[in-house]
Amino acid sequence: MKFYLFIFIFIISISKNLYSDETSDWLKREIDIILEAYKNQSLSNENRFLIIENTINNNFAGTGIAKFVAGAAWKSSDKNTKKIYIDNFKRHLALNIASLMQGYSDQKYELRKSKYDNKNQVTLVDMEIFSETGSVVITWRVKESKDRFFVIDLIVADISLVVTKRSEFNSMLKKVDNDLSKFNEVLTEQNQISYNKITK
Length: 200
Known about the structure:
The chain is built from seven helices and five strands; from the N terminus they run αααααβββββαα. It has helices at residues 2-39, 45-59, 62-70, 72-75, 79-102, 161-175, 180-199; strands at 109-117, 122-131, 134-145, 148-156, 159-160. Helix 2 crosses helix 5 (79-102), helix 3 (62-70) crosses helix 5 (79-102) and helix 5 packs parallel to helix 7 (180-199). The radius of gyration is 19 Å and the shape is globular.
């Protein structure tokens, strides 16, 4: 009996490792699309960002993250306001990730290791980026849903992007009395400023 239990645990362990490798392969392909866009000098800044934005929107769980960072303001808003907010948030997220990745676009990277977190049912993939002065590790949190992968968070220097955004948005929402409609106006203006900087 113990032998069969051992075999079962061993098989499960192997399948999780294979799953993690599959996640890493998928993630590498998507990261390379973003980095190649930066390296393609024939692209205008606007077209470059649109490629990056499309890649991020396709691979990040934007709607779920948007709901989480909006907190209580989400529940008290109407359907149309929520739709506008999700669109605004997705662009905001794309602008943030594009800005972050731009800083690493000329540097080499390796996906060091991946492990499956059984408790949260997510795969954690460590990406080490090398520079002349050393290296930095970014951890991608990836979840499978509907037979495909989605990035649900980025952790840089032990700081979660999603948790940071929730704190940042909560502060901004308090200034507009947790009115998501008013917050949309603020976010739209902020996005435009960031977009102008990236595409100029």
